Amino acid sequence: MTSHETERMTSTHGRECETVRRAAAADMEPVTVSGSAAFQAQYAGRDIAAGLIAGSMAIPLSVGIAMMSEYPIKVGLATVAFACLVGWINAWFKPGNYIGCPGIAAGLAPVLAVGVATFGLDNMAFAILLTATIQAIIWFFNWQRYILVAVPVYLVEGLLAGVGLKIALKFLAFTYELPPGMEAADSFLNGARIQMILISMAGYGLFVYLFLKFKHTQPAVPYFVIIVAGITLAQFVTVPMLSMEDTELKLALPIPHFDSALTFLYMLGFAVMLAMIDVIEQVMSNAAIEKIDPLKRKCNSNNSLFAIWIANMGSSFFGGMTNLDGLAKSTTNRLAGAYTKFSVLIIGCVVTFFTFNTHSLEYLPKFALAVIMIFSGWKMIEGLVHVTHHGPYAMILAILCGVLVFKVGIFEGLLIAMAVHGIVHYMVYANLDKMPGRAIVKRYIDDLKRSGADVS
């Protein structure tokens, strides 16, 4: 590494810290509120219409994310409905953002799936309770300002890219799956499978075309079209349909069942990672939601975290999942005409209907769901483009993080990437700047303190 590259990497890191400090400081500035964040009579009609549109779009996304997370679909939908209710109530007295739409996040789906595989679905309620508790501590002390400095944004983009690849490959099988009895015993490719692949390719092409055409005006259009087209096609062509068990929703204390204390320690580490990713995604989403707010109102990320940890803690009592105000659904909510969080209450009503009428979802073809989820995975991978302005070092590390997350695992991949990031900076300061190890550690701690002082 040349001295010029070292200077560039150091200055880039300094600019990133300064950007984070400014964003955190802006987050704590006094906010001039244009009316209530929860409801304004003059926007009620627009909020109702937006809620119906965004709620309809949220159904297939929530179904796909629940399946990716290895959770029952009904539990996933119930989590979204509950988070919408909490988000709307919170908007009356602690508004975080004004048009954000709560829901289960695609970026956390493989993380939850790892948790289910490791601890079992019965123990995940306690894991979500731990996650909510950690988020409550982060909210109480406003530690989200430190997390954004400790974990570079480009590492999060790399992590999401690795997760996006996992999602895309997970649902790729749905694009060529055949109904029972139509598979050929002697070959993989038969007429029926070729037809299924062509249908899926045509569906994906149509979805991408409509997304590019309407993404700035009505982003829900491609979702509606692919679902309606899929349901219509299924009346004339035999294709695999979505099927699910009618899971019973019941309240229960999130009490874990562990064989050893080591399992608890591993779950605690898992919950810390889950909480941090959830917090970082929410803060990043708030920065984008603020830009698309029709009334240019400021977001308060710590208030958003308040709603998140309450919703997460509440969902742990019925075996629910984690939530946050996702950017995709929030953008749809805004472009559909939302002005306040009243639209979120309508979204919750739409999702609640399907939560207790899950049999209606069995009319959805699997290939249509695959098209939506593969596209969602691709959009997460495409997020690496945002890393380019951080420089080549950030891009290399983001790609490394994505590969590690995909190959090794979300938890381990992020930790390894952060360790590499720390070692590189330590070597730069120790060998080129001739700083002793104690001074390097002190400089890092001072950076965190300075970032906190800017927003305290």
**Binned strand content:** under 5%
Low-confidence stretches: 1-33, 451-456
Number of helices: 17
* Strand line-up of the largest beta sheet: 1-2
For the biggest sheet, the summary is:
2 strands, antiparallel
Q: How many DSSP E strands?
A: 2
Backbone structural class: mainly alpha
Order of helical and strand elements: HHHEHHHHHHHHEHHHHHH
Query: What radius of gyration results from the CA coordinates?
Result: 23 Å
Mean pLDDT value: 84
Q: End-to-end span in angstroms?
A: 37 Å
Shape field: globular
Give the proportion of residues in helices.
55-70%
Task: Offer a concise description of the structure.
By secondary structure, the protein is mainly α. It is 68% helix and 1% strand.
Structure, described:
- The structure is a single chain.
- This protein is mainly alpha-helical and 456 residues long.
- 68% of the residues lie in helices and 1% in strands.
- The protein has a two-stranded antiparallel ribbon.
- The protein is globular and about 70 Å long.
- The two termini are 37 Å apart.
- Mean pLDDT is 84; it is low at 1-33 and 451-456.
Please render the helix and strand layout as text.
Elements: H1 3-27, H2 44-68, H3 73-90, E1 101-103, H4 109-119, H5 121-141, H6 144-150, H7 153-172, H8 191-214, H9 221-233, H10 261-292, H11 301-315, E2 324-326, H12 327-335, H13 342-355, H14 366-382, H15 392-407, H16 410-432, H17 437-455
Antiparallel strand pairs: 1-2
